[in-house]
């Protein structure tokens, strides 16, 4: 998404063309606060949770549930940007975000996030059930309070523990249909939970300079690039067997099992190359972190296709 160029028009004195451009820019900025790329993956995993759950939900209510999951995730992202505006201003990849760039006032962003969070939980409860609404509220609180406020600036385990916030959507989708949380959604939660560290640490390998400037204790900053690569590989070794659990408990067939095995083998290969990347004595990459960049891009496809394979499996067997 392109960054806005013009400040929103104020006072009504700007020419019409400039005002129109500014208003469009402002709309994009408010959308940017929701972290739409993150929300898209969150909504996808939530949809899969809804599809694979036993039972059914009226299409209108199912759509409402998905909108609530997206709004809840976006609200958490907006509050995160409000709280992190000081460190976002110090990092090259985040300095152009709407708040540090001065295009949206901090208090406005906070109010925006809080209102959307409250609305998403309330509508979820009214449209589906209060179990799903409660899990949605928990996911928002976990991301804002546990990850953003408590862990992110204090420990290199921030993304491990805080990553649980992004693992809730399939549980919410399941609960929206069934009104409960059983073993299968817990497994879907675990898949996303163990996927998050290797996904994010691959990114942090080449963005470690930003985190160092902002004094955020990401693993490459506190323990170095070599240890980060080792952790990426170790978490992938845990992740791949976890992705096979739906087959192990008889919830899915060979269709999902074959997809999980093939995707897992490729992800392991890519993260093995991350581990074996050419390095200097300090562990710094001599290839501009090309293996980590490839692994990061594949990780997004990996999770999306994995969950889609589970949905296809369930639809074929239905």
Q: Explain this structure to me?
A:
The protein has 318 residues and is mainly α. It contains 14 helices and no strands. The radius of gyration is 21 Å and the shape is flat. It starts with 15 loop residues before the first helix and ends with a helix. The model is unreliable at 1-20 (pLDDT under 50).
Short account of what is shown:
The chain is mostly helical.
How is the biggest beta sheet arranged?
none
Quaternary structure: single chain
Strand fraction band?
under 5%
Question: Helicity, in percent?
Answer: over 70%
Based on secondary structure, the structural category is: mainly alpha
- Euclidean distance between termini CA atoms: 39 Å
Please state the overall shape, judged from the principal axes of the Cα atoms.
flat
**Strand tally, please?**
0
Average residue-wise pLDDT: 90
Provide the succession of SSEs: HHHHHHHHHHHHHH
Number of helices: 14
**Unreliable segments (pLDDT under 50, ≥5 consecutive)?**
1-20
Radius of gyration: 21 Å
Descriptive terms for the model:
single chain, 318 residues, mainly alpha
Write the layout of secondary structure elements.
Layout: H1 16-32, H2 36-52, H3 59-83, H4 85-88, H5 106-127, H6 130-151, H7 158-162, H8 169-178, H9 183-206, H10 208-214, H11 219-243, H12 245-248, H13 254-275, H14 290-317
Helix pairs in contact: 2-3, 2-8, 2-14, 3-5, 3-6, 3-8, 5-6, 6-8, 8-9, 9-11, 9-14, 11-13, 13-14
């Amino acid at each position: 998404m392109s960054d806005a160029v013009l400040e929103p028009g104020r006072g009504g004195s700007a020419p019409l063309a400039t005002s129109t451009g500014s208003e469009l820019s402002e709309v994009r900025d408010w959308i940017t606060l929701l972290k739409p790329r993150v929300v898209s993956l969150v909504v996808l995993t939530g949809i899969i949770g809804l599809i694979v759950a036993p039972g059914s939900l009226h299409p209108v209510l199912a759509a409402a549930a998905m909108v609530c999951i997206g709004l809840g995730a976006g609200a958490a992202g907006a509050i995160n940007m409000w709280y992190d505006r000081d460190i976002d201003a110090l990092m090259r990849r985040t300095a152009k975000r709407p708040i540090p760039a001065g295009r949206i006032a901090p208090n406005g962003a906070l109010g925006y996030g809080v209102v959307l969070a409250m609305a998403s939980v309330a509508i979820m409860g009214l449209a589906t059930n209060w179990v799903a609404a409660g899990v949605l509220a928990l996911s928002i609180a976990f991301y804002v309070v546990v990850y953003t406020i408590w862990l992110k600036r204090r420990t290199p385990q921030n993304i491990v523990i805080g990553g649980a916030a992004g693992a809730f959507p399939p549980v919410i989708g399941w609960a929206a249909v069934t009104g409960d949380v059983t073993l299968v959604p817990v497994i879907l939660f675990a898949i996303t939970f163990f996927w998050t560290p290797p996904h994010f640490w691959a990114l942090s390998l080449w963005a470690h300079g930003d985190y160092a400037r902002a004094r955020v204790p990401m693993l490459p900053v506190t323990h170095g690039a070599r240890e980060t690569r080792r952790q990426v590989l170790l978490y992938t070794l845990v992740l791949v067997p976890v992705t096979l659990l739906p087959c192990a408990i008889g919830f899915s067939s060979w269709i999902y099992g074959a997809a999980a095995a093939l995707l897992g083998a490729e992800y392991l290969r890519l993260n093995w190359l991350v581990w074996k990347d050419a390095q200097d004595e300090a562990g710094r990459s001599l290839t501009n972190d090309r293996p980590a960049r490839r692994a990061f891009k594949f990780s997004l496809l990996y999770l999306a296709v994995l969950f889609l394979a589970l949905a296809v499996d369930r639809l074929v067997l239905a």
